[in-house]
Write a structure and sequence with these properties.
Layout lengths: L1 H22 L9 H4 L2 H8 L20 H19 L9 H29 L4 H10 L1 H5 L6 H17 L12 H15 L3 H19 L3 H30 L4 H6 L2 H13 L4 H9 L2 H7 L6 H11 L1 H24 L16 H15 L14 H8 L9 H18 L4 H12 L2 H5 L3 E6 L19 E5 L5 H13 L6 E8 L3 H5 L5 E7 L11 H4 L4 H4 L2 E6 L4
Parallel strand pairs: 1-2, 1-3
Antiparallel strand pairs: 3-5, 4-5
Helix pairs in contact: 1-5, 1-6, 3-4, 4-5, 5-6, 5-8, 6-19, 8-9, 8-10, 9-10, 9-11, 10-18, 16-17, 17-19, 18-19
Family: Belongs to the glycosyltransferase 22 family. PIGZ subfamily.
Main location: endoplasmic reticulum
Subcellular location: Endoplasmic reticulum membrane
Length: 560
């Protein structure tokens, strides 16, 4: 009882940390997709801000559904827009609310994971509060599950699917009658969010089918469950297809309702001709090796050997070790009893503990490893079966200190340091652009970013109609290209009300000194760690370490 009380208190503290750290907010910038797969697009559509639309959301190449961005970032931005329009909050729309409001919604959604773990732990023979502490204390939950990734939604849908397939009537005789419809809805929604969801859904769906076959003697009941699943999945898919088709063909519902009967038929025919099915476009693009090479290729074992360890640490290693042991034991048993055992082994239905959870973990991992482009965030949905497996009796207990240190390091690295100066930099620039002096006397700002992640323009809070702010993203441009661009901008620096800012990590600060220009102001934002331009260890040990771990905002001197 005392241990359970300690675990409950610890989980409550970690849950408060998750919410509080979201509101601070976190300064770490994990990957451009956390902005450009939802918030950036919705800020342009709903708040009419200057943004950069990624190619997946262009009508010429629609590869992402708009439904989930609308339901998450879209709802968040609509709420702060409504508050400002109603004069409840005169300046609700600013860089802080633009960042935090969708993150806060995702943080609230992240507790679906906690609910799922609490519901599933008894079913899979795990300690509920031990599993909850492992989940809440993981930096994956604290950092990744509070960000606006499609992978985050994928993980939440996977958790709900596991709850549904694991739920049975108290007698244990049959699957829940309502599960079939909900499982169909979640499977289709997950597929439209990310087609890779099918890799995560495969084992839960096979397990669910096994439960039905095992508990139902009537073939009619089995067919009834499958028909409900298919019908609800098809209906959900039709909702997504309709919404995406309207969005990507730039047609509004208002125009549709205002048409007469004859023009309505024409609209329906036109929509049919331009029907948008984003998952198929996504698969068509990603199954092309040349396209994947544009985003980076990795060895097929990267998920197993690198990404799993990077996300889950010792828990991933222990799962691999247990997996090999169970596989060896299972093969030996299979060979011994094959002569007297009729039918397939009951690994999925008869065994409700560790072997099945390991399949829930490793089967998606194996499918995702078939693709050459492998990023750590692709694996974050696997935290649920992993913590359930790790929270079983006598497992992971002796590794407590290592687990704590690993997650502290991960939270510090990804929640604070990684590209950690870029978001505060945009906050700083937004205040500068919208300062009273700038408002009373219009000025032009050119913001040149180099060797940073793609800056989300929406955080500058500049309307599409305002032309006084120009953002130039030089990405990882070489020294010659960077200097040419800066010198070209400096030579055209004739406007007295113009300002040119160059934003660059401290690790490449010396490059700018070779460009033959001078600066009137320097602002250092600390900390900022660029893994693409990492600091050198000897420099870190010198007195210049703060500069190496910072992001510079350099204002070009017009009298250079």
């Amino acid at each position: 009882a005392g241990a359970a009380m300690v675990a409950r208190t610890l989980w409550a503290l970690l849950a408060a940390l998750r919410a509080g750290w979201c509101l601070l907010p976190q300064s770490g910038y994990l990957h451009p997709d956390e902005f450009f797969q939802a918030p950036e697009v919705m800020a342009g559509d709903i708040l009419n801000l200057q943004v950069y639309y990624p190619w997946e959301f262009l009508s010429s190449s629609p590869c992402r559904t708009v439904v989930f961005p609308l339901m998450t970032s879209g709802v968040s931005y609509w709420m702060i827009k409504s508050l400002q329009q109603l004069d409840i909050c005169s300046s609700c729309i600013n860089s802080y609310t633009l960042l935090v409001s969708p993150h806060l919604l995702f943080t609230i959604f992240s507790f679906i994971l906690d609910y799922s773990v609490y519901q599933l732990a008894p079913f899979w023979g795990a300690d509920p509060w031990k599993a909850l502490v492992l989940l809440a204390g993981s930096y994956v939950t604290l950092v990744f599950y509070t960000r606006t990734f499609t992978n985050t939604l994928e993980g939440l849908l996977f958790a709900l699917l596991m709850v549904l397939v694991s739920s049975r009537k108290s007698s244990g005789s049959s699957a829940e009658s309502t599960s079939s419809s909900l499982i169909g809805v979640i499977t289709a929604a997950g597929f439209f969010n990310r087609p890779t969801f099918l890799a995560f859904a495969l084992m839960p769906l096979l397990y669910w089918t096994g439960l039905i076959v095992d508990s139902q003697k009537s073939i009619k009941t089995l067919i009834n469950h499958i028909l409900k699943f298919i019908l609800c999945a098809c209906f959900t898919a039709s909702v997504f297809i309709t919404a995406d088709t309207f969005y990507f063909t730039s047609m509004s519902l208002d125009n549709l309702y205002s048409t007469n009967k004859s023009s309505l038929i024409d609209v329906i025919v036109q929509l049919h001709d331009k029907m948008v099915v984003t998952p198929f476009n996504f698969l068509s693009y990603n199954l092309n090796p040349h396209n994947l090479a544009l985003h980076g290729t990795h060895p097929r074992v990267t998920h197993f050997t690198v990404n799993g360890v990077m996300l889950f640490g010792i828990l991933h290693i222990l799962a691999i070790t247990a997996g090999f042991k169970m596989l060896k034991k299972y093969v030996n048993q299979l060979m011994l009893v094959r002569w007297c055992y009729h039918g397939p082994p009951g690994l999925l239905v008869q065994s409700e503990g560790s072997p099945t959870l390991l399949l829930f973990y490793f089967v998606p991992l194996a499918f995702l490893s078939l693709f050459s482009h492998q990023e750590p965030r692709f694996l974050i949905p696997l935290i649920l079966p992993l913590v359930l497996f790790s929270a079983s009796p006598n497992r992971a207990v002796k590794w407590k200190l290592l687990i704590v240190l690993f997650n502290l390091l991960g939270a510090l690295l990804f929640g604070c340091l990684h590209q950690g100066g870029l978001i505060p930099c945009l906050f700083h620039l937004e205040k500068l652009i919208h300062s009273p002096a700038s408002s009373s006397h219009p000025q032009h700002y050119t913001l040149l970013f180099a060797h940073t992640y793609m800056p989300p323009r929406s955080l500058l809070n500049v309307k599409k109609t305002d032309l006084h702010v120009e953002v130039i993203d030089m990405a990882g441009a070489g020294e010659e290209t960077l200097c040419q661009t800066i010198e070209q901008r400096a030579s055209n620096f004739t406007c007295s009300d113009c300002h040119i800012f160059i934003i660059i990590p401290g690790t490449v600060r010396a490059t700018i000194t070779k460009c033959g220009v001078s600066f009137m102001n320097e602002t250092l934002i600390f900390p900022h760690l660029s893994m693409e331009d990492p600091p050198q260890i000897p420099v870190l040990s010198s007195g210049n370490w703060r500069s190496q771990l910072g992001l510079y905002i350099l204002e070009l001197n017009r009298d250079y």
